[in-house]
Amino acid sequence: MITPQFIGNDYEQVKTTGSPGHSWAEPPQALLHRLQGKVEQVLVGKGALIKQMLISMLAGGHVLLEDIPGVGKTMLAGAIARTVGGEFKRIQFTSDMLPADVTGGLVLDGRSGELQFRPGPIMANVVLADEINRTSPRTQSALLEAMEERRVTVEGKTRRLPVPFMLIATQNPLDFEGTNALPEAQMDRFMMRLSIGYPGIADEKRILEQYALGRRVEPERIRPVMAPQEWLQMQAEARQAHVHSSLLEYMVAVADATRRSPDIALGLSPRALRDWLRAAQAAAYIEGRGYVIPDDLLGTADSVLSHRLALRGRAGAGGRDASGLMASIVRSTPFPPEAGAVYNSRGRR
Q: What is the pLDDT of residue 78?
């Protein structure tokens, strides 16, 4: 019997006995479509953004929502958390927080007189790290082990996080008062960085109408669409999507271009390519395909790759940003001829 289990820092298919495999009563893509519709009731008019969140969720990654206050970052994270079931915890980061406020720590039990571990809010399936850049770098670093290795070490003892696990962090722009930039090592652990942006005129009017009529759907009112075990099963199935060697060749060429660019001080890491691969597989899974096509890579490139670049001073001074530079590299790097042949053989064009 094959069921997905967590091993090390990855999800793998592991042979187990005594537990039946999950059989889908309906195509998982229909379940994902329903989940997206539920979240769109909360964040009106942001279907493309919500799809990127689902891709990260299926790929086993974490998401950083970076935008100005009031556009719905916390609402989006809460809605996603409640649609997938499992345990949800929120951490409101402040300047006086300590690492133990995140990971938990040892406390004295009044009855037994012994020290016992009290789990921190990081011990949940979905964790919202709200305004993560308003706390000190020391507290931010408490998340590094949890994000990459799905575990925390407290007082020399390592404890596993619940499975599945996803961190959704929000942060305000760095030019806002009281913010601290996330270190490069932590930025690289976020699979995606997304920005919500202002709603369109028609969508904003629709939101106001919902408030005026008392029909606004708050995240707390959303009921789960799937169970954590179904989420975990989807992750395992998404990672089985076939990726042609020519697409891998293209990904390596993109990474090499970022490392050789005179405008970039810090290019893409191998972890960035791993996340890009997982995101492309998840994008294919959402579309009901068992194979990755070039569009899956192109559609996830900006959200997965741009935040991992560090530009040289003259590039930033010239008005270029990481997103624009990354898009230029992705466009200018040609796909190998074999990628086009595979694309055509699938009947897409």
A: 87
